[in-house]
Design a protein that fits this description.
Layout: H1 2-11, H2 15-143, H3 149-152, H4 170-176, H5 186-189, H6 215-226, E1 235-238, H7 245-259, E2 265-269, H8 270-280, H9 284-294, E3 298-302, H10 313-326, E4 330-335, H11 347-353, E5 357-360, H12 366-380, H13 386-395, H14 400-416, H15 423-433, H16 441-457, H17 461-465, H18 471-487, H19 492-498, H20 504-520, H21 522-539
Parallel strand pairs: 1-4, 1-5, 2-3, 3-4
The structure holds adenosine-5'-triphosphate (ATP).
Length: 547
């Protein structure tokens, strides 16, 4: 419209109108110029932004390229490392497979050697028995006619100082001794032969090892030996097989003879006594038999449970008992069970056996068993590592004869195979000797100890047996090990196995450490006391010794 207006003015012919039109046109051009300048500025800004962004992008791209290069280099390195490791592992696996193969061969060999060794042991044992029998027959022949010792009135002759006859099974011989078998002149024959008192020369108080399970019986035996027929008469000692009853009876006899020379003593098994009685017949034979016993100051009767009632032997023994007791002579009796259970002896005899002191000997605890084994090893002149003795003592628990037999076997096996008497070897030998009784009570007790110690310290049994080494865990673990050692009969190696496959040295270390800590720190001592009381309250004795 404006342009049309200006054009109209310009053609109207007036100069004024022309000026006006030009001014308007200028103003328009000026506005146009301003708008263009603004547009230029805006475009310049946008360009600068785009350039900046392009520069940034360029930088980023360069960085990414650099990173890519580095990652690739690292990747190559890692790959190389991985390949190296795989190669090393493959090599190690190969080595191990070769070792496994070699060990398998060795094991087969060892098994074969073991079977051969066992056979050899059996053969040697057979030869030994035959040789002993032959020696015994030769001895009997050499002794000539036997003399009734009652007739020569020489009861109580002190033993000669010589040791047992070489090669003779002294214990057996002594147990079977009868007065008829006694030599006419002991002094010329030595103590090892069938002395008329029947006491085994090896069984004195000095060779008896005292522990918790036999302390009372030992004390009573000593009291009787020191003052016969004053305190406990009769003394009745009972307990299972091979736990030292015969040893105690003989020790009483030896002590009484040594401290009161002239004391007339006789050790006899109930079986022998019954045979003698039956063999005596009637008349003079019976008189001689009675004189032989009634002359005594101290009668020691072993294994009374074997007294048969044949031919009135029970009655005869009861008569002897009454006469000796009435004359204030000491009687000591042993049995595998308490008098109450000896029903076959009849109420009258049983009543007499119950009238004195009854004492129960239980199988020796581990410490005693270890001492017995150590002594046996010393006697035999063999060097056995303490942990092997410990292992044997932990596995053979109820019978001292078996215990000593186990050591003999381990020794034989080691020497036949030219191997050291270490725990591994003992384990192989004992595996066949000791019947597998399944998870033992001792192991159950140890597991309970671990659990209860864990509870006490607020950790799990798994953690206690694991590898973590936090302070509380280490203390708890060592306490649990110590308690297992203290309260069970398990060997340190077995305890170590229960604690996640640790070795016996860790257990021994824990044991030493806890002993030292308890002596140094009251708090540890108190914790141990409390924990022990809790365990005992729940569990009771695993092997009859937490008393
Ligand atoms: N506490 C001990 N100290 C020393 N030796 C012991 C002890 N206990 C047992 N023995 C030994 O063990 C072996 C067997 O003991 P002993 O013959 O006295 O057993 P027992 O109880 O009489 O058995 P059994 O009823 O089978 O005859 C013996 O050699 C004995 O010396």
């Amino acid at each position: 419209m404006r342009r049309l207006h200006r054009t109209a003015l310009a053609y109207s012919g007036s100069a004024l109108n022309r000026v006006q039109a030009l001014e308007d046109e200028l103003a328009d051009a000026d506005r146009q110029s301003l708008r263009s300048a603004a547009l230029v500025r805006a475009l310049e800004g946008a360009l600068a932004d785009a350039q900046q962004r392009a520069t940034d992008l360029e930088l980023q791209i360069r960085q990414l390229h650099g990173h890519q290069d580095r990652t690739a280099a690292e990747k190559d390195k890692a790959l190389q490392l991985y390949e190296d490791q795989v190669t090393a592992l493959l090599r190690e696996r190969q080595d191990l497979m070769e070792q496994v193969e070699a060990l398998g061969e060795e094991l087969k060999d060892a098994h074969a050697r073991r079977v051969r060794a066992e056979r050899r042991c059996e053969e040697l044992e057979r030869q030994l028995v035959a040789a002993e029998e032959q020696a015994s027959q030769e001895d009997t022949a050499a002794e000539g006619p036997r003399v009734d010792p009652a007739a020569d009135g020489s009861h109580g002759v002190p033993p000669a100082a010589d040791g047992p006859r070489e090669g003779a099974p002294v214990a057996e011989v002594a147990r079977e001794a009868t007065p008829d078998e006694a030599a006419p002149d002991e002094a010329t024959r030595g103590e090892g032969t069938w002395a008329r008192h029947g006491l085994d020369p090896r069984f004195g108080f000095e060779t008896f090892v005292v522990g918790e399970t036999n302390r009372f019986a030992h004390g009573a035996a000593r009291a009787v030996a020191e003052a016969p027929a004053t305190l406990y008469n009769p003394l009745f000692v009972y307990g299972t097989s091979a736990i030292g009853k015969t040893h105690l009876l003989c020790a009483i006899g030896h002590h009484a003879r040594r401290t009161r020379p002239g004391t007339r003593v006789r050790y006899v098994t109930a079986e022998t006594l019954a045979h003698e009685y039956l063999g005596a017949g009637r008349g003079r034979g019976l008189d001689a038999f009675r004189r032989r016993y009634l002359d005594l100051d101290l009668l020691l009767v072993d294994d009374i449970q074997l007294l048969t009632g044949q031919g009135g032997a029970h009655e005869e023994f009861r008569r002897l008992f009454d006469e000796l007791h009435g004359a204030r002579k000491q009687i000591v009796v042993s049995s595998d069970r308490p008098p109450k259970q000896l029903t076959h002896l009849g109420d009258r005899l049983r009543g007499r056996l119950e009238s004195g002191l009854i004492t129960h000997v239980q199988p020796p605890e581990r410490a005693v068993r270890v001492t017995l084994l150590r002594r046996k090893a010393e006697q035999e002149g063999i060097d056995v590592p303490p942990e092997t003795l410990d292992h044997i003592a932990s596995h053979v628990q109820r019978n001292v004869r078996e215990l000593e037999g186990a050591l003999v076997r381990v020794r034989a096996f080691a020497s036949l195979n030219r191997q050291p008497m270490d725990v591994q070897l003992a384990a192989i030998v004992l595996r066949d000797l000791v019947p597998d009784r399944g998870p033992s009570r001792e192991e159950d007790a140890a597991r309970r100890i671990i659990e209860m110690t864990g509870e006490y310290f607020g950790v799990t049994a798994e953690a206690l047996c694991g590898k973590e080494r936090g302070r509380a865990l280490v203390t708890g673990r060592q306490m649990a090990m110590y308690l297992c050692r203290e309260l069970t009969d398990l060997s340190p190696s077995r305890i170590g196995q229960l604690f996640g496959g640790r070795d016996h040295e860790s257990v021994d270390y824990a044991d030493r450490k806890l002993r030292a800590l308890m002596a140094e720190r009251r708090s540890i001592y108190n914790q141990m006391t409390e924990l022990t009381a809790r365990i005992k309250a729940v569990d009771g004795p695993p092997s009859g010794r937490w008393v």
